[in-house]
Specification:
The complex is a heterodimer of chains A (492) and B (162).
Chain A: H1 4-22, H2 26-45, H3 47-53, E1 55-62, E2 65-74, H4 75-98, H5 105-124, H6 128-146, H7 152-183, H8 188-197, H9 201-219, H10 228-234, H11 237-264, H12 268-290, H13 295-316, H14 319-350, H15 361-364, H16 366-380, H17 386-400, H18 404-429, H19 445-463, H20 465-486
Antiparallel strand pairs in A: 1-2
Helix pairs in contact in A: 1-2, 1-5, 2-4, 4-5, 4-11, 4-14, 4-19, 4-20, 5-6, 5-11, 6-7, 6-11, 7-8, 7-9, 7-10, 8-11, 9-11, 10-11, 10-13, 11-13, 11-14, 11-20, 12-13, 12-18, 13-14, 13-17, 13-18, 14-16, 14-17, 14-19, 14-20, 16-18, 16-19, 17-18, 17-19
Chain B: H1 2-20, H2 24-44, H3 48-72, H4 83-110, H5 123-130, H6 132-152
The chains are: A mainly alpha (492), B mainly alpha (162).
Chain lengths: 492, 162
């Protein structure tokens, strides 16, 4: 059941190019969406066992013989799997209509599913080297997907992304190699135990620095963010949504904090360093977003800024901070997915993403405008939408931990966020309708439907905040906090 | 020890040449020589399987693919690089070598000896039984690579509806 998160996307991806020979559109659409709907359903079914047992460990037999195919599912990775499956399903629904002008749907969907299998694998494996391998599965698929349009900008952005991503992977691999050299093991628990017995603080410090550089590059934390504002806007809208909504969080934040919490341990010095990095990202990217004219570029900078909030909460290390950060991770995945898809709708409707050329679209395309407003207000932290609660919890956690300076910066960055999102609203949707947009029509059905579903998630999660927080976020935060307790602290 | 140092210096020199040389064939051959030297280093460090894969796949197969691709493609317009970009790699390399020389020796001495033997077993056991999950991920990487080639080298076609 747990293995299906990796096996089903890979199997469907392997068959899609063949299926594409017989049916160019219908079957690839149906197969992909059905596979992802199954994964969402599967994640929901696993909530109860995880709630009762805490951890599920599954072994798989290979042709009758027991092999080392083991996955460990706890509240944290179930939460990540659910987020990945839900957002991916909405993105693939959007792609039904959006991909009409790209063609080659079967290849696109196959790469899309391989990327999802890579992310799910990364979330499930309890082993350092397997983390690296699944990181590469998702990354290789994402390079091709960024360049899928085959235009000059897409290819350039993909190449830049590839080059920086390879450097990131090299740093992570180097660190894994040194840790393997020291402990003789790659399994999270065995490595954590091995590191406790050793007194190698300096070398371990270098390993942590390499992990931060590697995964920081993947998560696009400032100052490792240069690739993201090029790569994310150049990709087709569904892939921008996937990269900004999910990939930077899974291959950057999840991997980094899983290793820190379950293997290395969070020291006060490391906590302060990561909190500083998170805060710098939050502020610098918000300021850079203000000056952008391209909607997708503005959204890309916004992603860097919001990743800063998540890192700030996770690096704080208190139960409330972790819970707030994980909740914000989910909210940002949904809302940013929505906003990138929405930018795809705007481009589909008008042919441009330049805010200076747009204006008054709200009257002409109310569904696109309405869903954009919901996503923007959720990320900006306006009540009662989901983003408000997660930001509130992070700020409360900072105040509880007496980190008043960080709390103040988080509030100010939130105001900046609201400012640039209101700029999008004013320039694109409000005001007088320019003559050239007087005949535009709403985006096709599946594109609008995906936007509406994600907007509804933003609203409903905000309204039913308490039960959702108890069912999904608390078990995830507890699983992470247990990881911290298991690992003996080491001092830098 | 002297042979090891010569091999390592050769590895760094040929790796740098692979990046610095303008002629793509020469660059590909430099990379192949670097891989060959790395393979020999692996062999001398008692990692024969890694050596065999490095020499046969990286030095052999991939070089053939590179040279085949270069031979089949036409030379395009010359791209002139800015002087700053041209200088970036050599400066970075020299800086790295200096830092490496100053720091790495003392850092390596601080890495404690392995407390127990690493995950052991025959090559087949390790590959098929202990690292099975890695094989699944390898399938994923290969699939992603094949699909990437299909996506990036596709012909733009008018999709006909069924």
């Amino acid at each position: 059941m747990v293995f299906s998160f990796i096996v089903i996307p890979l199997l469907v991806a392997a068959f899609l190019p063949l299926v594409g020979k017989f049916s160019k559109k219908l079957l690839p659409d149906v197969l992909t969406n059905a596979a992802l709907a199954f994964l969402v359903f599967n994640a929901i079914l696993l909530v109860k066992p995880i709630f009762n047992q805490g951890v599920i460990v599954q072994n798989l037999n290979w042709l009758g013989e027991r092999v080392n195919l083991q996955v460990a599912l706890d509240g944290f990775n179930l939460f990540m799997l659910f987020t990945i499956s839900l957002v991916s399903l909405c993105i693939s629904l959007f792609s039904i209509d959006y991909l009409e002008h790209y063609g080659h749907k079967s290849t696109f969907y196959a790469l899309f599913l391989v990327m999802i299998a890579g992310m799910n694998g990364l979330v499930l494996v309890p082993d350092l080297f397997s983390v690296y391998l699944f990181l590469e599965v998702a990354a290789v698929a994402s390079y091709a997907l960024v360049a899928f349009g085959l235009g000059y900008d897409e290819l350039e952005a993909s190449f830049k992304y590839l080059m920086l991503s390879v450097v990131a992977s090299a740093f992570a691999l180097l660190s894994i190699t040194v840790i393997f050299g020291m402990t003789g093991s790659l399994n999270f628990q065995a490595v954590a135990q091995g590191l406790q017995d050793l007194q190698a603080r300096l070398v371990l410090g270098v390993c942590v620095a390499f992990f931060i550089m590697g995964f920081g590059l993947k998560a696009a934390l400032v100052p490792f963010h240069a690739w993201l504002p090029d790569a994310h806007p150049s990709a087709p809208a569904p892939i921008s949504a996937m990269l900004s909504g999910l990939l930077i969080k899974v291959s950057g934040i999840y991997a980094l904090f899983r290793i820190i919490y379950s293997v290395i341990g969070l020291t006060p010095a490391l906590s302060q360093l990561l909190m500083a990095l998170g805060t710098i990202s939050m502020v610098v990217a918000a300021l850079l977003a203000l000056g952008q004219k391209d909607i997708k570029r503005m959204l890309a900078y916004s992603s860097i800024s919001q990743v800063g909030y998540i890192v700030l909460g996770l690096a704080l290390g208190t139960p409330l901070g972790i819970a707030g950060a994980l909740f914000h991770l989910f909210n940002h995945a949904v809302a940013k997915g929505l906003l990138f898809l929405n930018s795809g709708s705007i481009q589909h409707i008008t042919g441009t993403r330049n805010l200076e050329e747009l204006g008054g679209l709200g009257k002409m395309v109310p569904v696109t405008a309405g869903t954009n407003l919901v996503g923007a207000l959720s990320i900006a932290g306006v009540p009662p939408l989901a983003g408000f609660w997660s930001k509130l919890i992070i700020i409360m956690a900072l105040i509880q931990a007496k980190q008043f300076g960080y709390a103040l910066v988080a509030i100010l960055a939130s105001i900046l966020t609201l400012w640039y999102y209101l700029l999008i609203q004013r320039k694109a949707f409000f005001g007088r309708v320019a003559e050239k947009w007087s005949q535009v029509k709403e985006a096709p059905f599946w594109m609008s439907a995906a936007n509406v579903v994600l907007a509804l998630v933003c609203i409903l999660v905000g309204i039913f905040f308490t039960p959702i927080f108890k069912t999904w976020i608390s078990p995830a935060a507890e699983a992470l906090a247990r990881g911290i307790q298991q690992v003996l602290m080491w001092g830098l | 020890m002297a042979i090891q140092i010569i091999l390592l210096c050769g590895l760094v020199i040929f790796s740098a040449l692979a990046i610095l040389l303008k002629d793509l064939i020469k660059a590909a051959l430099s990379l192949a020589v670097a891989s060959l030297l790395l393979g020999i280093i692996f062999f001398r460090l008692a990692a024969p399987y890694a050596a065999v894969f490095e020499i046969s796949v990286v030095a052999g197969l991939i070089t053939v693919l590179f040279i085949l691709t270069i031979a089949l493609t036409k030379k395009g317009d010359e791209v002139t690089e800015a002087r700053l970009v041209k200088l970036a790699f050599p400066v970075f390399l020299i800086l790295f070598l200096v830092i490496d020389g100053l720091v790495m020796k003392s850092l390596l001495q601080k890495i404690p000896a392995l407390p127990a033997g690493p995950e052991a077993g025959t090559f087949g056991e390790v590959l098929w039984k202990q690292r099975t999950f890695d094989l699944v991920a390898q399938v994923g990487v290969i699939l992603a690579g094949v699909l990437a080639v299909l996506a990036l080298f596709r012909k733009k076609e008018e999709d006909k509806d069924e």
